[in-house]
Amino acid sequence: MTAARVLDWTPSAVVFDCDGTLMDTELHWQEARDLVLRGYGVAPDAGFATRAKGLHYTECGRLMAEVAGEPAQAEPMTAHLLDAFRKLVADDPATMPGAAALVRRVADFAPLAVASNCPLDVVESCLEGAGLLSYFAHVVVPGDDVLPKPAPDVYLTAAALCGAEPADSLAVEDSYCGIRAAGRAGLRILGVGAHPSEEEAAAVDLWVPDLAEPGLVDWAKSRRFATTA
What's the CATH number of domain 4-24+94-228, 1.20.1300.10, 3.40.50.10090, 3.40.50.1000, 2.70.50.60? Predict the structure, then answer.
């Protein structure tokens, strides 16, 4: 990791992942996956959550269908997954520690975007419920011409919409799937989470346990002051 590439630098744009980075929804996804699998009489193994983390929901549906031994059921399982997740997150639109404050600080000096593998309505409703949607100029999700993570498309599109070159942009990510996407797009990467794997830690410029980490907060404050002096 090369922390100075983040902490001694002012990005031209900052692109955040949503689930597990801005919004505390990873447990909702895990619960929704478990609900669907239990409906097929399957209990996921210990490594399933790690394999599913950060995947596009259609890929997650295919993975669940494989685990259940019902590959033809990928489409209905995906639909059930989204339905269960929407209900869970509507009841608890909580942000990750430090996320809301960091978004507000970073918005003082850089345009912001979200790059997510989730459906657009899910991302926007989560951010709206948390009072954060208005801080983001763009929300980018996979579509006809935009492939899901770990392809670089959502990050390349988000940086371009913000008027920034990828190399001048910062990605904020919690999953290896998303980190790979941001790295392939050429962004600098801030990783966040309690226990990064060796692969995750090696692939980012800076890793913090959460977005309330004092050094990161000080960095955001110093960028703001530098641009308003």
Answer: 3.40.50.1000
